[in-house]
Amino acid sequence: xxxxxxxxxxxxxSDVGKSILATALCRIFRQDGYHPAPFKAQNMALNxxxxxxxxxxxxxxxxxxxxxxxxxCSDMNPLLLKPQSDHTSQVVLNGKxxxxxxxxxxxxxxxxxxxxxxxxxxxxxxxxxLASRYQPIVMEGAGSISELNLRHTDLxxxxxxxxxxxxxxxxxxxxxxxxxASVYGSIALQTPEDRQLIKGIIINKFRGDLRLFDEGxxxxxxxxxxxxxxxxxxxxxxxxxxxxxxxxxxxxSSRQATAGASSAWQGRELKVAVVMLRHLSNxxxxxxxxxxxxxxxxxxxxxxxxxxSDIIILPGTKSTLHDLxxxxxxxxxxxxxxxxxxxxxxxxxxxGYQMLGVEVCDPHHVEGxxxxxxxLGLLPTTTTMSGDxxxxxxxxxxxxxxxxxxxxxxxxxxxxxxxxxxxxxPRPLLHLSDGRQDGYFVDAKCMGxxxxxxxxxxxxxxxxxxxxxxxxxxxxxxxxxxxxxxEQYDRLAAHVRQYVDMERLYQILxx
Length: 511
Description:
By secondary structure, the protein is of the alpha/beta class. A hairpin with a 4-residue loop joins strand 6 and strand 7 (88-93).
């Protein structure tokens, strides 16, 4: 097969669809017999993933690797920034945290001084390692390629494309308006050297009759001097896991779900509330439940919504103590305790598991100034924060009394250790394959775990729903989320093939 250049999907701005299109190309290249891999030099996201060797990367690159049919690794996202506040982020380099950085210091001062890490050299080395094993590399830019004030520190857009000798495809979002100005301006503002790297344009998120943009397509090619490779229609019926906080804002709230009860939620009897935390992370933990036809899942921090729910899930968070403080302030903590007392199931995952205990302690100020807060007291546990981050994939089995024939799989990303409080005895929810125990199990309606992705396992979801068996439709079948995801990758690839000139793209990547 022909050797293909790396391809970079760069954007006119954030949330134009670069990640989704990169996912589609990973699946298309795989279908066509290539051995692709994703790459994003620098990512900023709270939604991360643990690689098989226990390192941490952005969730989008893990999804793209899954679409490509390969295990993910830290070289696919060598630099990950996890926001902790408006001004600081935890810096994860080559899969391991190296501390927190002030945004000004990171963007303006990095590389100055002998003690500074050469991030550019690190991300380029990661790309080189990846490119020696896979081809083509499907690269993703970040935000807009025309942030002139950040050009000298840019690691992820056209400077990275220059190092990789990649062909750049510029993605513009027509749904937000101003696509002519954003595409033309993004190209015009590049240096002559970088402008030559841009080999094609894809217009994304088109609504309506595509024929209405035929003239616009020709005009855009004329003024930019770059071919438009495709105009991709907006879709709502293909479900791909996303990591961006913008996607989280579009998740269903209880009121949205109620408004659509006659259609989208028809027949979904069980109400599942994911408590909306200010620093919520790894919200893809709940994508499987969103698609499960037996359930009506929504995100909320409304007390009445919580009290009206059958199952309440406290999710992961980047800042356990601050979010616990906020839950107490806004009344959600009290509502969760009351709802459980009145019969609701409560499940805590990662930071949510920590909050369900008797107390959360931070004597070394790992998270901030709060040294201790009482938890919700639903689990007899105590958590102490530490600076060491645990990142690993896991296999596990449920309690022996309900052990299933096959292991559960998931991953851990957390800081802190949780132990029984006082003289409470251990009651683990999971027995891990390496001999460790995880979580706490009070009963079928109160439990917690550090394992992200546990809800992707049909047998665990069935276990969670068992107390409500009499309310479920007898015809309802367990939902196979892994098979569902594979189907979605194939549907996404077919959608992009239909509207993007793949023959022309292959020509560009082969020259």
